[in-house]
Amino acid sequence: MHVLLRPSTQLLLISDLKDKINVHRYAGETSEIIEIVHSVRPDTIFHLAACFKAQHEPHEIKELIESNILLGTQLLEAAAAEGVKCFINTGTHWQNYDTCEYCPSDLYAATKQALETIADYYISAFGISFVTLKLIDTYGPFDPRPKLIPALKMAAQSDQRLDMSPGEQQIGLVYIDDVVKAFVLAALYAEKMPPGTKKSFIAAPKEIYTLREVSAIFENALGKKLNIEFGRHPYRKREVMDICCGDENILLKTELVGLYEGLQKVFKAECEI
């Protein structure tokens, strides 16, 4: 397996895999990626990199475009130049703001859709089999992102009050092992697609919960009551209240880790609470 990383990206989270992967550093030039893809000659490219900003600031626009549009386009250019057959793209259910049709909830989601539009050219002109896998919410051990589960863990450790929104928005948490399964399934599907076609899937759990329900399940799994104040923060502008996506769930027929079990796996792996 070959991994393309930014020069600043650390390998701490995948340190157990460092002897099993080949790392290639990318400084921003398209020619670099083409050379790397030429040397590797992969059958499939997985595009996982992303810059996420739920509510962006003007100075963050460049980073959003570079990570979510430019890099993906460079990868597609390299795939076309080197005859790569399959391309697995990562999307977001935020591309469907309270509707099954395309309606971006924020600029992040709009950049994700923009790459799919650009990909149409490469799909048609170079016969790439292109699959977009839309993620909802993901979690797992040692997650460094400022997401819900890490915030709940921090509140449990500190016993400090955690201020939240009213908490009625839906959360679709998928455990990291099942996220990996989804990408493998996407790659297997792409291998069987006719050249020059595309397909979009969503990776959804069996159960969808509200933020309040997730917090309660977290408390039950941990065996500890947290000091959570719902309603202290308003909902964000264009908050995605309902998970609504017309794409087929790629995990529909797959046995998944439930939220309670997944949280216990997180606690056991980290052994810090």
CATH architecture name of the domain at 42-139 and 172-206 and 239-256: 3-Layer(aba) Sandwich
Strands, total number: 13
Instruction: Using the coordinates above, name the CATH class of the domain at 42-139 and 172-206 and 239-256.
Output: Alpha Beta
Low-pLDDT sequence parts: none
Radius of gyration in whole Å, from Cα? 19 Å
Order of helices and strands: EEHEHEHEEHEEEHEEHEEH
Protein name: CDP-3, 6-dideoxy-D-glycero-L-glycero-4-hexulose-4-reductase
InterPro entries: Epimerase_deHydtase, NAD(P)-bd_dom_sf
Family: Belongs to the NAD(P)-dependent epimerase/dehydratase family.
Domain NAD-dependent epimerase/dehydratase: 30-193
Describe the structure.
This protein has 273 residues and is an alpha/beta fold. The protein has a domain at 42-139 and 172-206 and 239-256: NAD(P)-binding Rossmann-like Domain (Rossmann fold). The protein contains seven helices and 13 strands. A five-stranded parallel β-sheet has the order 3-4-5-10-13, sandwiched between helices. Helix 1 (30-40) packs across helix 2, helix 2 runs parallel beside helix 3 (107-126) and helix 6 (211-222) packs across helix 7 (259-270). The longest helix has 22 residues, at 61-82. InterPro entries: Epimerase_deHydtase, NAD(P)-bd_dom_sf.
Short description:
The chain has 273 residues and is α/β, with parallel strands linked by helices. 38% of the residues lie in helices and 18% in strands.
Explain the layout of strands and helices.
Blueprint: E1 2-5, E2 22-25, H1 30-40, E3 44-47, H2 61-82, E4 86-92, H3 107-126, E5 129-135, E6 137-139, H4 148-158, E7 162-164, E8 170-171, E9 173-175, H5 176-192, E10 198-203, E11 209-210, H6 211-222, E12 228-230, E13 248-249, H7 259-270
Parallel strand pairs: 1-2, 3-4, 4-5, 5-10, 6-9, 7-12, 10-13
Antiparallel strand pairs: 8-11
